[in-house]
Structures are given as structure tokens and as C-alpha cells.
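A reminder before we start the practical. When you read a complex entry, don't treat the lines as separate problems. The point of joint prediction is that each chain is placed relative to the others, so the output describes one connected object in space. Small molecules and nucleic acid strands, if listed, are placed in the same frame. In the example below there are three entries. Take a minute to note the order of the lines before looking further.
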Amino acid sequence: MSDTDARTAHLLLTHEVAEFLYREAELLDERRYDEWLALLADDLRYWMPMRRNVKFGEEGREFTREGQDIAWFDEGKDTLTRRVRQIQTGIHWAEEPVSRISHLVTNVHLVEATPSAAEAREVTARCRFLIYRNRVETETDILVGKREDVLRRPNDSEGGDGWQIARRKIILDQNVLLSKNLTFFF
Amino acid sequence: MSDPINIRALMPGTQITLTDGAVAEIVSNPADGVWVFARYLDSPRDPALVGQEEMIFAQDVVAAAPPK
Amino acid sequence: MATANSSAYRPGLVDMKTGQISREIFVNEQIYAEEQEKIFARAWLFIGHESQIPNPGDYAAARMGEEAVILCRDRTGEVHVFLNSCRHRGMKVCRYDEGNTMVFTCPYHGWSYGTDGRLVGVPFFREAYHSQLDRAQWGLVEVAQLARYKGSVWATWDPAAPPFLEYLGAASGFLDLQLDGWDGRGGQAEVLGGVQKWLIPCNWKFPAENFSGDTYHNISHRSVDLAGIGPSGSGRRDMSELLAGRKLHVCLPDRGHQTILYLSPPDDTPRPAYQNTPLVAEYFRHCEEERRRRLGDKARLLGAPGEIFPNTALLSRQPRTMAAWHPKSPHETEVWRWFFVDKDAPSEVKNFLRDYYIRYSGPGGMTEQDDMENWNYAHAASRGTIARRHPYTYEQGIGTAVENFEWQGMRVPGRVVDITDVRSSEEPARNLYRRWAEFMQADSWDELMTWRKNARAAAE
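Here is the predicted structure of the whole assembly.
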């Protein structure tokens, strides 16, 4: 493959992945939760560590460890499904009335594409997010951070790009959480 | 006037020269960039300090030679 | 000598006869300011757990009331709690959440303190201070008393406060449920890495009251019951082990501690719970057996939400967590939450519990989220001029608590309400606020230690 072809494949794949992430954000913002759940691989891991203030040189202590320590989230598709079901009861008071949310997804770039950009079946993508959450009258939260997603395309499905989210690591840029709750999805 | 030295990452065994001409060897470093614990090797102003371990303040350090 | 009197503090504010409590106690700036002096400067407060600072030189950020403190272990292994503020000009001497250090150094003028709090480094001591500064006077401010109970660390600024065990009274039993091993061995708990810290827009007493034993608010959590996050895949908790016997409110009026407790029948067999995987189910079944063997009759008591006065919440089972409700202002609280497992539990069990804990509690916790929503807007709706004229009612079950409660051979201390059949009472909240008003009124600890007076009177 020529250099131009490789660069073109990379560009197209980056665009495709970004479009996927924007469409995912759209589903969440529109509260189309069941359609969103369908984008999650069955073996999804969804992890948002907590962050510590640490001394220069002790960066290894900054994040709580996946699978070992407490986190804000460290769960799979089953728990995420239950969160959706909870909202859908209509009596999850923390989301009743429902929040108004916009997910801004930006800085999307590819870290890795397997086996290649041209024929990618699995992609690691990073981005930045800004989640704006406004609820009831004036209650407003702005949460900003980084995401690293592993997307998988299990097979060539009809009518769609078939990407699924296999792994999501969410790095929120906060220490003490400034929101009273995390009733929404990152 | 010498350039300021960042004492934060100086290793034990480093020889430091102080503003009063004394020379000391770092024993331990709390890595705060403000203090090191060092043993005096040479102390013209107060020879009784030789062999003593003291806390040395960053502003008193004018030179540092890495451990051999 | 005056005795603590809950009705003397701003008469009418806390009325134990009618069970009505003014909204002012939650929203009033002056009352909040008085709380910092009368309660947080005098009571025993929860600092953290020794498993956060296992080695000499280890430290962790902590909080007492509004104030930042440092929990640390010095070079000799002794545990200390210091005000996190340089004695010279106040800068925080530690801005990290945890670590290991030889000294705490202030970046403003360079003063440096050992892990035992002593002032060890003063720049230009010989020159600028002419060697005159009495360093022994200027160490980090240390708490007046510190206590370690089965790994939990508590402290008070008040030298006149009673020793911690005396402060607890029978509530040491509540702490035992929290910190002892699931199999009944003493003090087996360790903290899972990472203390959750987050801000909630309400007065600290909303969560304090809730955890004291609000058995009336299950409708808040109906959505999570429906979503089914419980350890065996349904509901919020595995209820079979809890519903076998009596559900009690246990209140210690002279201490201000209270809790929900479950009291199983004697010779009750372990109920299926924690059915997540065969290994996990078997582990807990084995622990329950061992617990009964070790503790005998005492194993009949199972823990549930409770509160150590003023602001430490306990929950020893489902999930196993402690919280501190740190006041920031009348209208804002910073919650710190610790989660516990037995230190020698298999990793599969720790992982199972960890999963359950963080989907249950905390800001990502599907149960706690609904509590916080209610506290948030209850507080907000209580700030107005008109709202403040209308007290809350805490009259549920008033006058129904009994002393010397006993059921099928088991005696339970304190004033107890058996809520098995009546479903709920508000005795725990009354108990909390009665004690709160006593603290706000009392000039000294002498007035607050009524049990000592009663003991003297009984001896005479």
C-alpha cells in the first residue's frame, strides 16, 4: 500500500470512529438508552478511576487501580444495563425529572488499529469529553476529561458500521468529585 | 553568583558545597526541594559540625557533585 | 452543676415533647458557626483507618469538621493526627492525598516538621532567629486525644472529652459489627484502596439523620430495588438473612449514637445470601458458621445503617462502608466514604464485594444517588423565610421506645423500638437531635457526661 493510501485509510478510519462516537453521544443526549446499550459489547469493561494528588515523581499512585481499588465506576454491561433500567422506572429520583445533558466529544484520534487502518476490526481511540449536565432549575455540572475506548467490529453487519464498545477508560479531571451524583454515562 | 540548584532529586552520596564554604554529603533526601539531610565533611566556620548530620536548607547549597 | 439540656438551646428549636424540629438547624448561618465550636471542636471524629497508613512515614489526608488534618504514622510506628497548617504562616504543609515522607515541609518559608509533628527545620535559625526560637513550642498542632479501635482512628481537639471507649458506650458493639471479621474474628477489616470524596449541596445533618436509622424512606430506593443490584442479583440487598428475626432501632440517648440492628432468632441457620458465584456463596456460608461458633448468642445481631455522634455513618453489611459528613457550610457537605473487606478474604470475594459497593454507594451508587437528591432539595426548600417558620415533624413512634429490651433471650442496650411490625420509627433521629441540642447548649463536657453523674448517684 502506498503512503498516500495508508494515510487515506487512516483518515477515513479516524473519521469513521469519530462519527461513531458522535452518534453514540447523540443517543445518550436523546436518552435513547436501549439503542446505546446495543452498542456495548457483552464483555465491556467501563472504568473511571479516582485520582489522587500525589508528589512529583510518585505518579504511580495517582489513579486507583482497575479491578483492585475503589473507583467511580468499574463495571460491565450488566450493571450499566441496570442503571438504564433504573432511569426507565421513572422513579429514580436523582433522574426524575431527567437531566438535560450534552456530551461534547473532541480530540478524537486513533492510537491503534488492528490489523490495519484499512481493514480495522479493532481500534483504540482516544478523545476528550465535556459533559454538560443541567437539571431541575439551575443545577449545573460540567465534567471534563479524557477517554480511551477500544472499539471492536465483530462482523460486517448490515446497515451500519457495526462498531461496538469493548472497553472504556474514563479519566475525569477531578479529585474531589464536584457533582453530587453520576447518574449519567460517560 | 552561581545558578540556583534544585536539591529535590539529589541522591544520597552527593557532595554539596554550602554558602559558608562547608562541604557535606547527603545522607537522605525528603525530595521536597527545600531540605536535605547531610553529614558535614568539612566546616571552616564551625569545625565542631564535622561528622554531624544536619538538615541543610536549599538556599544554603551552592554546588552539588554527584556521588562517584 | 448544670446538666445537658436539649430544650435549653434556643428554646423551641428542638422540641422533644412534640417531636418537632425547626428547619433553622439546617440552614441558619449562626447555628452552623456555633456547631463548629460546640460540636466539631469537642466531639470525637472519625479520621480514617490504620490500613491507610501501614508503614512508618505513611500519611493520608483527613478532615475534622471543616479543617484539613494529616493522619500519619511516625518513624517509631506511632499514629498522629495534625492540623495541616504551618505554625508560622498557615500554608498547608501537605497537599497530597497520601504518600510516605520523612518530613512535612512548608513551601512558603521552608519550615519543616517530622512525622511526629516536631519542628525540625527552620531556615536561617542561627542567623535570622539568632537561635532564639523555641522550636518545641512550634510543632504542628496535634489533636488533644487520639484513639485506635480495631484499626479505626478517631480524634478530638478537646482534652476534656471522655476517653473514646467511654464516648462510645455501648456503641462499641456497633463498631465491632463494622470492623470485626465476617467470621467473627476481632478487627479483620481493611480499607479498599481509594476514599471516595464528593460534594453534596445540603447540610451535614441530612445524611447524618438518614444514616441514624431512617427506616421510612424505602420509597426513595424503589427504583434501585426494581433494577436489582443486590448481591444475589435481585433487589438492593439480600433480605432473607435480615427478615428472619426482629428489626430494631437501638438508641443510646446519653451518647447520641444510634443504629438499626437486626436480631435473629436463636439457633437460626444461615440464610442463602451472596449467591453471586459458588466460591463467594460458600465463603459467606462458611463465615456465617464460624461467626456463630465464635460469638454464640452475639452472632444474632446483624448491623445496618447507624451513626456515631456527630457525623460518622456506619453500615456493616450490604454494603460495608463508613462515611464522614464533613461540614463545609450550612448548605454544603463534603462526603468521604471508605469501603471495607476482611483483609484475608479471597480476591474473588473482595472483587465481588467491591463491585457491589460501588454500584450501591457513592455518587455512582444507584442507591445513594436518590438519597442525595432528596437531601439536596429538602435543604434548598428549607432556606426561605416562610419555610423556616414550619418545623419538620419527627413524631413517628414517639413514646414507644423501651429500655431493657429483650427478645428470645437476647438483651439489647439503650432505648429500643422494635419496628418489625410497625415498619418504622423516628426515634433514631430524635436521639441524634436531642444530643445535638445538648452539645450546642453545654458549656463543658462535664454537663454532657450524664452517665458519670448517674453512676455516682447510683453508687451513693
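Discuss with your neighbour: The first strand of chain C starts at residue 14 and ends at 15. What might explain this?
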